[in-house]
Design goal:
Elements lengths: L9 E4 L7 H7 L9 H10 L4 E8 L5 E12 L9 H9 L9 E6 L10 E3 L5 H17 L2 H6 L2 E8 L3 H4 L8 E4 L3 E5 L7 H6 L3 H13 L4 E4 L5 H18 L11 H9 L3 E8 L2 E11 L2 E9 L1 H7 L1 H15 L4 E5 L3 H6 L3 E3 L1 E7 L2 H11 L16 H5 L3
Helix pairs in contact: 2-10, 8-12
Amino acid sequence: MICCTNTNTALFFSSIDEIPSQIWETLGCTKNIYFHPDFLKSLEKNHPEISFSYIVLVDNENQPTAFASLKLIDFHINSIKNDFEFLKDIGRKLHVFPDKKPLKLLICGNTFVSGEHGVFIKENQDKKAIVKELAESMNHFVNSDKKLKKQIDAFLVKDFAKESLFITDALKDFSYHPFSVEPNMKLQIHENWQNFDDYLASMKTKFRVKAKKAFKQSSSIIIKEITLENLDEILPKMTALYTKVALNAGFNLGVFNLETYRNLKENFGDNYILKSYCLDDKVVGFISGIINKNSLDAHFVGIDYQLNREHAIYQRMLYDYIEIAISKKLKIINFGRTASEIKSSVGAVPQDLTMYLRHKKTIKNKILKLFLQRVQPTPFQQKFPFKNLEISHEKH
């Protein structure tokens, strides 16, 4: 546990339980599930290997103006794989990454979900000023603890959409370097889609044929709701499948503990989506996601890769997310990162997300800038499956 003295502009907490309820009420942030204490508590409770802390920024009258969630993690350079292998080599050559031990990273943001889920700013605030206060508060957080000051290698503030960059670029004043990673793939649910057949009807023939083929291939799969009653029994199988997916990823900021699903289901009920995919009584996949205001956010999935191609498991999952969103009259699906091309074939378009990174040591931070200029999202071929181009390019 990290203890940090409060300042005139910031209050520091080392557990969600420490934050008084009036702070949540004053901020008015709990309509967004990612800033709901129950959601944050679920993550904190199930990931003891991560050190969680929280900052509440306050104004001159000591009234809360913003909330930020911090995580202290060990980033293992060997977890970088696939298209990112060359980064590992460059990083080692430039001595940006330590050779033997993991990189100690202080992250402001949600390490498990793509998007702007790390900083909440109350309405009618000067957002640029808040971002600067946040950077100062993160420095204070580290510098006020001798052990932590020695331990931490770098600071990461994650996942801002293009329209936020004019605010978050204030971090450059604090020697942070912006860089882009894989985009979040987003699908706008068209208002004319009353059901899944309407969605299929809006597609070009080639993509509709592809969808029907995926349904035919996956027709022997039995899809079931995962409830609190059957979760315990299925969890070990889900964990084994998720581990394979996690190992396949280019890089991970942390491994998600699927035990978290129990708390999320308890707290959010039907707004937390969990479904299993079974073939002959064998679990071959699962999907998870959350309904947050008017969007469905796909969270983690598990896939039996050996059976995936034959039974179109992943393709079917993507259509199921779409079916859920249409039936619940939602407006957007956030499919998250990875597998961008297949997601674009069901209609999703990329939303670029920017992260900001700063190395604690000045010289290494200058080298880091050169390194980050080499970091590019993996290129993919964007598909345009809809007949009416306005559906593909609707503003989002």
